[in-house]
Amino acid sequence: MNDTVVTLVGNAATGVDYRETPTGGVARFRFAVTPRRWDRRNSAWTDGSTSFYTVCAWRNLGANLTASVNVGDPLVVHGRLRVRDETLDGQRRTFVDIDAVSIGHDLTWGTSAFKRVARANTALTERPVDMSAAASAANAAAVGSGSGADPGPGAVGKPVHTQPWLSEQDESAAPVGAAGVPTGPL
Predict the structure, then answer these.
(1) Taking the CA of residue 132 as centre, how many other CA atoms within 13 Å lie in the half-sphere pointing to its CB?
(2) Contact 135/180 with Cβ under 8 angstroms?
(3) Rounded distance, CA 29 to CA 71, Å?
(4) Is the dihedral of CA 128, 129, 131, 136 positive or negative?
């Protein structure tokens, strides 16, 4: 893959235009980047010439961008650079586009509050918990503990590692439900 990947720091020059397409939603906006330099002769900051880019963000990034960005917001844009030449009204023009991979507010100039968006298909992001397997393992652990008595349904033995990202110490401290599965916060 020989794409030119760039990271630009600037401001949203226009509002975000979001449209649904057959391949998914796309958001577009114009992005202005103005370099600033220290002028030693005048002892002041001076602005260079402003470069404008058209930023395209597809699918979830585009939808989130539409809800998060306003005109004038300072942003950091990371994505693939595309340069194209077109002839309009007999004049040849060059357009510079960025297919965004990531966009965020530039926190040098202010604060931002992140809010996770709930997705419609959560089955792709949730970890499955097989309650029947956890209950069987909990009963087997209680029976194998040497007590000799059948613990019966709903008995709780040593916590079963149903959540491998927790250590045994973390699971034993968490509240345990009837099936031997931790029910406390993760």
Answers:
(1) 0
(2) yes
(3) 9
(4) positive
The neighbour count for residue 26, using CB atoms within 10 Å, is 18
Phi first, then psi, for residue 24 (nearest 5°) are 125, 170
Would you give per-residue pLDDT tens digits along the chain (186 residues)?
Answer: 688 999 999 999 999 999 998 988 999 999 999 999 999 999 999 999 999 999 999 999 999 999 999 999 999 999 999 999 999 899 999 999 999 999 999 999 999 888 888 766 545 445 555 555 555 555 555 555 444 455 445 445 444 444 444 444 444 444 444 454 445 454
Cα–Cα distance measured from residue 88 to residue 43, given in angstroms and rounded to the nearest whole number: 43
From CA 85, how far away is CA 57, in angstroms rounded? 21
Q: Which of 72, 58, 84, 99 is nearest to 10 (CA)?
A: 72
Kindly report the number of other CB atoms within 10 A of residue 137's CB atom. Answer: 19
Assess contact for 155 and 142: CB atoms under 8 A: yes
